[in-house]
Write a structure and sequence with these properties.
Elements: H1 2-23, H2 27-45, H3 49-66, H4 69-76, H5 79-98, H6 102-125
Helix pairs in contact: 2-3, 2-6, 3-5, 4-5, 5-6
Length: 137
């Protein structure tokens, strides 16, 4: 009976550690932004620039800003990297609005996706917890 209790306790502690580690990982946030950027690119390639622009805006204000990745980058990696990412989002929107060639938009999206992954890794390596940026703490 004691062995079962100890195993249950260890399992509970292990599950809590896994959940906490997931809350501290910035890669899922980057993945959410990337998913929306890919949807925007697909919309643009399908000829729907209006939806593509809206999806880029949603990627920025949704997971990137809403999950506080932008704030974490600004606070821990510097104002310049945060500004450059913001400008990349804006440039993609402008390219879509102006009807830029698909390959140019695809290149800009790919560059932003790579920057998001790189910054998520840097935040993780610096040990920046996502929980620091939770609202109502």
């Amino acid at each position: 009976m004691m062995v079962v209790r100890v195993l249950c306790l260890l399992l509970a502690m292990s599950a809590a550690s896994v959940a906490q580690a997931a809350d501290e990982d910035w890669m899922p946030v980057a993945d959410q932004v990337i998913e929306q950027l890919e949807a925007a690119l697909a919309s643009y390639q399908a000829g729907d620039a209006k939806t593509a622009r809206r999806e880029v805006i949603q990627a920025y204000f949704g997971p990137f800003e809403g999950e506080k990745m932008e704030a974490a980058i600004r606070s821990h990696l510097g104002i310049e990297p945060a500004f450059l990412l913001e400008r990349q989002f804006g440039d993609i929107r402008k390219d879509i609005k102006s009807g830029a060639p698909e390959n140019e938009v695809a290149t800009a999206v790919d560059e932003l996706k790579q920057a998001l992954v790189d910054h998520a890794k840097q935040l993780n390596e610096a040990g920046v917890p996502r929980s620091v940026y939770e609202v109502n703490q």
